Amino acid sequence: MDEPLLVTTNAVIDAIGGTAAAAWLTRRGQSAASNWRQASRFPPNTYLAMNSALAAKGLYAPAWLWGMVEARPPASETKADAKSGSLPKRTAEWLAEDGSGKKQRKADATEAA
Question: 20 to 30 A Cα–Cα from 82, which one of 13, 29, 64, 98?
């Protein structure tokens, strides 16, 4: 079962239980947590606490919401599995992105395989 992906700070805060819950979880003030709703990123040092809370609810948020880069999958996984169509969902999503969160052209994805 794939985990639902949350891609905005608002969605993450709401999923955690709201501004007060996000503040308590990250040991920040409610005003700081409230400001995250308007920002496009969270402070990087809140990543583990917030993603642990999301995982407990079966949810997932990408590392770029915290200003981090996610690890690339092993080259053997991307080449062999891309041809067979058996890539894990997150790996397939990563291959469809160019690192900036934008989708690659189909021709670029084919050349990478």
Answer: 64
CATH of domain 9-66: 1.10.260
Tell me the DSSP string of the chain.
-PPPB--SHHHHHHHHTSHHHHHHHHT--HHHHHHHTTSS---GGGHHHHHHHHHHTT-B--GGGGT--PPPPPHHHHHHHHHHT---HHHHHHHTB-SSSPBPPHHHHHHH-
**Domain ranges (residues) in the chain:** 9-66, 75-112
Residues in the chain with pLDDT values less than 50: 1-2, 99-102, 104-110, 113
What gap in Å lies between CA 25 and CA 6, rounded to an integer? Answer: 18
